[in-house]
Amino acid sequence: MSVSIEERLKFYDNNYEIIAEYHLGNGKKLYIGNDDRVCRFCGKGEPEVTFKDIAHAVSEFLGNKQLILRNECDTCNKFVSENLENHLDKYTKPFRLAGQIKGKKKVPSYKTKDQKSRYEFTSSEGAKIIDRKDSDFAKLDLENKSIETNFHLEPYIPSAVFKCLVKLALSVINDTELLQFTNTIAWILNPDHSESICKPQILLTAFIPGPKPNKGVTVIVLRRKQESDTSPYCHLLICFGNIAYQIIVPSDVDISEGTKTVKLTRLPLPFEINWKYGDIQFGQEDLTSSAIVKDKMSPMVFSFDKAIELDPETIKL
Prior knowledge:
With 317 residues, the chain is α+β, with helices and mostly antiparallel strands. It is built from five helices and 14 strands. The model has no long low-confidence stretch (mean pLDDT 89).
């Protein structure tokens, strides 16, 4: 990377402060928001809306069993689940599978479109790939004990993925900080994913090699210091399994300051120094489009302990 870790640390130390930080898994329940039964997103209260369902501040399929949002109504919770979370679910599924991240019930499994191969994980047997010789899903390297796979992502909308990450950021900050995101909330609740309040919608990605470097899911939201005039106003970093994502969280402050060209600076990751499993693979993706992506492939390489040739007649896919 062109900017050193030291320079990036200095940049964020000088210009930003953390307003939310959570390291989540299966521990004791944590709660965000007041209990006055007014939704932080739509602004409605009882009896106009209800608060019966459990609203996870960070999507449960990312590995969060702990952090619960008190002040998200059932209507907004359902909208986010059906219009935003389903796209983030599809977009991240291969990485959650590879990272063995347990969602509501289990680690997700995967079956190829041609039904010839599958990937699954069980607590008793661990990760297992079953691949037919006439399948294009996996390439086996017996000498190096590695297998190169190519996952097919389910159809998703990029802009909905971005909006879901923004919603996640607004779910973990406190009610006072939320006051700077009125227009952002209206945009999140707009079912038309072609409309945007910032362009382009860039996702900075990092793939950390090795066995589950992130043991749980880490969420950090940073807000610009009052004495700083740098842009943008707010950033989100979320890490799970082998993945780290960073985005700009658009705010009313950014809108009031008008159109600007912003240089994205990556938050330093602890895995960048002396990580024994190899170098981090950095990348970025433009999630501005509202068109459905149908044929994206996600290549991934795994190491394995043993390979067994099975009788094709006994395999059930």
